[in-house]
Design a protein that fits this description.
This protein is an alpha+beta fold. The chain folds into three domains: 2-84, no CATH class; 96-157, no CATH class; 163-245, no CATH class. The chain has helices at residues 2-7, 16-38, 46-63, 74-81, 164-169, 185-194, 200-214, 216-229, 234-245, 268-279; strands at 96-101, 107-110, 113-116, 125-130, 134-139, 142-148, 156-157. The radius of gyration is 33 Å and the shape is elongated.
């Protein structure tokens, strides 16, 4: 698309068949010119390459003369025609789509690589959308998982949050479960402390169960505070989360109530009260 934009004018209304050959030749020449230049560079990702292509095409727009109006560049003609162009309804979403089944280990196999999806989808069919740099998995018209795309073979991409419901039923998997090796550092440190205790895997499962409810960032803050206190437990983490979610107290409370008699600081009233209670 970028190379076509740098090529010059597109087909004219009513003369598509006549203009098609010219447009294709311009695109072919521009593509060859741009990719020859790109071969001399090094790019760390497709995103970096696309940014370079966009910048190079815009530069060519300033350099190339329009085929029919030689005194104007392509950039000049684009500025002139811009008000007449139709707006784009939505960005083009380009991907290759296929179907895959979720295996019992909560993974989908695509091109000999395995990608995790939420465990509640085990046994179901999901849509696989393959982009240049990532792979999305869609179920029930919603993206349920997204991973960086693997270009080698026999690679595995886990998201440990996909396995939280499973851990609530089988907390023992926390000890050697491969997906949980990539948890954030605070959770790894908490797991290391809890698994030294009897029943610590169940306590850790309760902590992880708070992630879908309260959010990962809030749980990480709570875990950090609990680790600093030296008393790690699921109840402690829950208490900290509740305090974090509680709204701050108001600076002042306005009320129409008035005190008709100002209170007197008389500690002797307590002694009289004790005597009255003893007498009763």
């Amino acid at each position: 698309m970028l190379c076509a934009a740098a090529a010059g004018p597109v087909c004219k209304p009513g003369r598509g068949a006549r203009s098609e050959g010219v447009v294709e030749k311009n695109v072919q020449d521009s593509r060859r010119r741009i990719w020859q230049e790109a071969a001399n560079g090094r790019f760390g990702s497709f995103a970096e390459l696309n940014l370079w292509l966009l910048a190079r095409c815009r530069t060519l727009w300033q350099e190339l003369r329009h085929t029919e109006y030689g005194d104007l560049t392509i950039a000049d003609m684009l500025e002139h025609e811009q008000p007449s162009l139709m707006p784009m309804v939505s960005p083009f979403d380009g991907y290759v789509e296929s179907l895959g089944k979720v295996h019992s280990t909560c993974v989908v196999i695509e091109d000999r690589n395995r990608y995790s999806v939420p465990c509640e989808l085990v046994g179901q069919m999901v849509s696989i959308r393959i982009y240049p740099e990532r792979i999305d998995f869609v179920a029930h018209d919603a993206v349920v998982a997204s991973h960086v795309r693997c270009f080698e073979r026999n690679q595995v991409r886990y998201d440990w949050q996909h396995y939280i419901p499973l851990i609530e039923r089988k907390p023992g998997a926390l000890r050697n479960g491969a997906p949980f090796a990539d948890m954030p550092d605070p959770l790894l440190r908490l797991r290391g402390l809890l698994l030294k205790r009897e029943g610590g895997d169940r306590v850790m499962a309760k902590v992880l169960a708070a992630v879908p409810k309260s959010g990962l960032e809030a749980v990480l803050v709570a875990v950090e505070l609990v680790l600093e206190s030296g008393n790690p437990s699921a109840e402690h983490v829950e208490n900290v989360l509740n305090r974090l979610k509680a709204p701050p107290p108001p600076d002042c409370v306005q009320t129409h109530l008035e005190v008709s008699e100002a209170p007197v600081a008389d500690t002797g009233r307590y002694d009289r009260l004790r005597a009255e209670v003893g007498h009763a």
